[in-house]
Amino acid sequence: MKFYKLGLAVFLVVSLSGCFLTKIVTVPMRIVGAVVSVVPVIGNSVDKSIEGVADAVDDIPL
């Protein structure tokens, strides 16, 4: 029972940290940016825009 409580406490500490929360938001953004970068002509500029926004979200102090 103590191991279960310790595991639950560790999970809550990790999941409630700001870095983890911003990664939940930015990882899908970065994946979409990588997929869009394959599109000819506009792909790279859209990818750079998405990366810039994702970097800004990562810098939010939580």
User: Distance between the terminal alpha carbons, to the nearest Å?
Assistant: 32 Å
What's the β-strand tally? 0
Radius of gyration computed on alpha carbons:
17 Å
For the sheet with most strands, the description reads:
none
**How many domain regions?**
1
**Percent of sequence in beta strands:** under 5%
Number of helices: 3
Order of SSEs, N→C? HHH
Apparent shape:
elongated
- Average pLDDT figure: 83
Briefly note the structural class of the backbone: mainly alpha
Which helices and strands appear, and what pairs or packs with what?
Layout: H1 2-15, H2 18-36, H3 43-58
Helix pairs in contact: 2-3
Please provide a written account of the structure.
It is a single chain. With 62 residues, the protein is mainly α. The chain has one domain (17-62). 79% of the residues lie in helices and 0% in strands. The protein contains three helices and no strands. The protein has helices spanning 2-15, 18-36, 43-58. Helix 2 runs antiparallel to helix 3.
In short:
The chain is built from three helices and no strands. By secondary structure, it is mainly alpha-helical.
Keywords:
single chain
